[in-house]
Design brief:
430 residues, alpha+beta, Phosphorylase Kinase, domain 1, Transferase(Phosphotransferase), domain 1, Jelly Rolls, six-stranded antiparallel sheet, four-stranded antiparallel sheet, 19 strands, 36% helix
Length: 430
């Protein structure tokens, strides 16, 4: 298929072709009004003019702009605009310079580190959770639709066959088998109603491939592929790699459950399990009994007034981190959404290599990163052996509502106290 693309599309200047996909050609463009590069996706003219399928193709093409345009998330490619210029239909998207898809990393000789895979799937699960809560089901999650940026972030793209659903919607899903067969859920292959859980199944396939370099449902033709996805369990990942922890195999198996009742219900549930798995990969933990942890945590001022049952909830939702002398806990410039409570020992707060503050047992840190997911503004080091509770904002949403409310009250009180102390110090220094 070819397109005779003019030098401009609407107000956008067309520079050069950068990619081709099933729905059109992608060009590097320039927005002269905002002075920024953009990606211009232009529909194939031959497909638009096809007498039998042109109308459906046009609907699918602009469906991407309509559905993805509803979403604003750091791990979803932004849609800025869409339009028609003479015969050309186009979509204006965020341009990621130097970006590549995840497809090259699904080969057994080019696998990413396990920690990086867990981080990628975690971000995708959160992005899908957000999309699903906005009523958008992607329906075509696969490695080639997930962009891997030069700074090792991820962006989900290609919402051309996505479906918008809500309680008041009277629209029906585009009929027929939609998606990429190797990544389809059993319900997609049966052409049944597709929900957000189908996206999570597809993400499970992507995770399996990124970890093993193999396909979970190998088949050499379409009919065998369908039969395998509908009836067979994927080979254990340990068949291909012996260094993967059981926790990751359990997560992948749950994502690939054929029965939606046993599969992850929401992306947030998958993200929560990935957080716990990442913590075990990140740093081996000293074997401390749950009872010892509970007794240590209960004595902290932060948990004054918490019923025992809610302290247990927080313990189960958080991770226990042990650090040795001079270990980095947080590095200035890093970005995460974790909040820390010192259970044993102390930490040094450092700027430009100088200790500016020491925090002791019972103190907290990381409030702004937890609240706003901003870059860390200081480095935190352990001067001696230190034990911390590491609380992730995604995981804490899994505890009971009463526990969440109580935790949030204490968290905000701590944050206000910290901000007040900072303000007072600044006024004294003036």
């Amino acid at each position: 298929m070819t397109n005779n693309v003019p030098e401009k599309l609407g107000k956008y200047e067309v520079r050069e072709e950068i990619d081709r996909g099933s729905m059109g050609v992608v060009y590097l463009g320039h927005d002269p009004y905002i002075n920024r590069p953009v990606a211009l996706k232009v529909a194939f003219l031959d497909a638009l003019n096809n007498v039998e399928s042109g109308a459906r193709y046009r609907k699918m093409f602009f469906n991407e702009a309509h559905t993805a345009g509803l979403l604003t998330h750091p791990n979803v490619i932004n849609i800025y605009d869409a339009g028609v210029d003479e015969d050309n239909c186009y979509i204006v998207m965020e341009y990621i310079e130097g970006g590549n898809t995840l497809k090259p990393f699904c080969s057994s000789d080019n696998l990413l580190p396990v920690n990086k895979v867990v981080e990628i799937i975690f971000k995708c699960a959160n992005a899908l959770d957000y999309a699903h809560r906005q009523g958008v089901v992607h329906r075509d999650i696969k490695p080639s639709n997930i962009l891997f940026t030069p700074d090792q972030d991820v962006k989900i793209g290609d919402f051309s066959i996505a479906h918008i659903y809500n309680a008041d919607s009277t629209t029906t899903q585009m009929g027929g088998m939609m998606g990429s067969p190797r990544y389809m859920s059993p319900e997609q292959l049966r052409e049944e109603h597709v929900t957000n859980q189908s996206d999570l199944f597809s993400l499970g396939v992507v995770m399996y491939e990124l970890l093993t370099g193999r396909q979970p449902f190998p088949a050499d033709n379409f009919s065998r592929l369908v039969n395998t996805i509908l009836n067979d369990e994927p080979p254990p990942m340990s068949d291909y790699r012996t260094d993967l922890p059981d926790s990751l195999n359990e997560i992948v198996c749950k994502a690939l459950e054929k029965d939606v009742a046993n599969r992850y219900q929401m992306g947030l549930d998958l993200a929560a399990d990935l957080t716990k798995a990442f913590d075990t990969l990140e740093k081996p933990k000293k074997d401390i009994s749950a009872e010892e942890k509970f007794n240590s945590v209960k004595k902290l001022d932060f948990f004054t007034g918490f019923p025992d049952a809610e302290i247990w909830e927080i313990l189960r939702a958080s991770s226990w981190q042990d650090y040795n002398a001079n270990d980095d806990i947080i590095v200035e410039g890093d970005m995460d959404d974790c909040f820390y409570i010192i259970v044993k020992g102390s930490v040094d707060v450092m700027k430009n290599g100088t200790v500016i503050r020491n925090l002791e047992k019972g103190d907290c840190f990381g409030e702004m990163g937890y609240l706003a997911k901003t870059k860390r503004t200081a480095t935190i080091k352990a001067p001696d052996h230190t034990s911390l509770m590491k609380i992730n904002s995604t995981v804490i949403s899994q505890v009971s509502l009463n526990c969440q409310v109580r935790f949030l009250k204490v968290f905000l009180r701590t944050l206000i106290h910290r901000l007040s102390a900072t303000t007072e110090k600044m006024s004294q220094d003036v």
